[in-house]
Each structure stands twice: as structure tokens, then as C-alpha cells.
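Attaching the record inline, Q. Sequence:
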Amino acid sequence: MAQDPKMQVLGVAVSTAIPAVGSAVPHVEAGVGAIATQAQTNVFYGVEGLRLLRKGLTPKAALDDMLSKDKDREKRQVIIIDAQGRTTAFTGRENVDWKGHSIGKDHAVAGNMLVGEHVIEAMSRTFESEKGNLPERLLKALEAGQEAGGDKRGRMSAALLVADQRWKSATRPLLDLRVDAHPNPVEELYRVFAISRKYFQVSE
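Structure, as predicted:
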């Protein structure tokens, strides 16, 4: 999950070992923020989280408010970044190992059921070293996580959701790409992105 403050772009990239990850985990709104809600996924954190950010709450205040109302919060994993670059993260104690998160400049990475901590370390390091546009940097980070071992259960689906305030007056995402039931979903997602970018004015 990340933002490009100069280009006013926000996005989430995700992959997992079950189908349809793009239908639940990523939540992004141009000029507002980006949220990934995973582990025992509750889309409330995405929908309500964006609403609270829209009201002016900081990511931490929004997350604290939502966690306080959730009796199953220790089964959740949530990362949030707003359009000002403020970031927060939570990994519940009841998530399956390896579990954890990392916050870096303009981004955060989180995972559970991973082969190890080195997965998110590789993702964060790759995101920070890449020089392309935000969607490419997110995909490169996701690719690095997959190459580092990723989900210890295997791989099946992946998604990229990106919002750009300059795109169609922010009335729709710049990119909403999903791959399901594929033996190599991250690689396939990158292929779909390469085709899509010329249609959706993704900057070089």
C-alpha cells in the first residue's frame, strides 16, 4: 500500500492463496487514502476507514476507532495511508505466522501466513529502490514478495487498485486489475497491467 505525493496517486497491490483477493482487501479513494484489510478480512475497515479519513481523521485515529468496535480485532490485519502520507498499521495477535507489518516512506507492507519476515522486507526494500510510477513500484514490490516465498500456502489470486486524482475527475479508479485462479497470479497481473496502461493513461 502506498502513495506518490507528487503525482497524487494512491494504491494497493495484493496477492494470496485463495480466490478473489481484489474483491475484499484493497480499498482506495483518490485524494483520501488507501487501505488494505486482510487476515480474517473485514471489508468494514476499508469502507468505514475511507469514510473516517474523508471526515478528516488521521489514519491512526480512524484505525483506533474501528478496532475499538471489533470484538475480533486480534484476527485482523490492516494498513492505512492517507493523502498526506500519514500511515498506520495493525497486526492482531491471532493472525497465523509469519505475521507482521512494516512502515516506510510513503508506503506500508503487511502479511500473514508468510514463509517469513524476509518477504515483507524484500517488498519494502524493492518499493523504495524502484524509480517507476506508483503502479509499477507496487507491482515490483509484490513480485519481490512472491520471489521471496510469499504465502506459505501457495498462490492463486492477485490485484492492483490505484486511484489518481487527475483521472476522470476521480470518479473511478485509475486501475482496478484482478487475476483469479491462476498458477502465477503476480506475473499474470503484471502482464494485464502492461496491456492496460496504454488505455488508462498511466504515466511513464
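The first helix runs from residue 44 to 55. The domain at 2-196 is CATH 3.60.20.10 (Glutamine Phosphoribosylpyrophosphate, subunit 1, domain 1).

More tomorrow.
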